[in-house]
Amino acid sequence: MALHKGPVCRLCRREGEKLFLKGERCFTPKCAFERRSYAPGMHGRQAQFRRKESDYALQLRAKQKARRVYGIYERQFRRYFRDAQRQKGLTGLNLLIMLETRLDNVVYRLGFASSRPQARQLVQHGHFEVNGHKTNIPSYLVKPGDVIAVQESSWSNPYFKEVSQILDGSQVPAWLSMDLARLAGKMIDSPSRDDVDITLSEQLIVEFYSR
Hints:
Blueprint: H1 9-15, H2 32-35, H3 44-47, H4 55-70, H5 74-86, H6 91-100, H7 103-109, H8 116-124, E1 128-130, E2 133-134, E3 147-150, H9 158-166, E4 176-179, E5 184-187, H10 202-209
Antiparallel strand pairs: 1-2, 1-3, 3-5, 4-5
């Protein structure tokens, strides 16, 4: 997750919608976007009345939104795009699949964290293993058949004791499965476009990098 030292709620306001970067707080009245849904800055209120945005502006916003949702630096995001171009199929869809199958995002999708930033932190602290091997790299790309589990040494951690009581295996996406008893999940298939429940426009991202 790219390091952002400022208030993350400003990112949601800039994109004009909730990006759910603060977990449960985003669902409460304390959410800054609920109180100030206009863009940040001294001219934020007037931004909605400005003239129509150019094609480049729309493409840039689509790219920035995807980066902010998944928390990725520009250099890394560009590398993902190049890798997506080399693969067979649609470049935009390949890009979204890579972003969705990052280990930190899979941990978030399984319900072990309330936000992607929190999931990244848990992975970096070494609480998870993939196929029985400790993995603390958030950008690790999970493949179909891989098993992601909380390390047994972390089961006694108060956080995971609490999480294990509220986890619901029925809430995980169709491309994942959950074993609540083992605090483990499995990637049973690659996610499809319908499984990406974020309002991203991959075509605009492709157009941005194809200029």
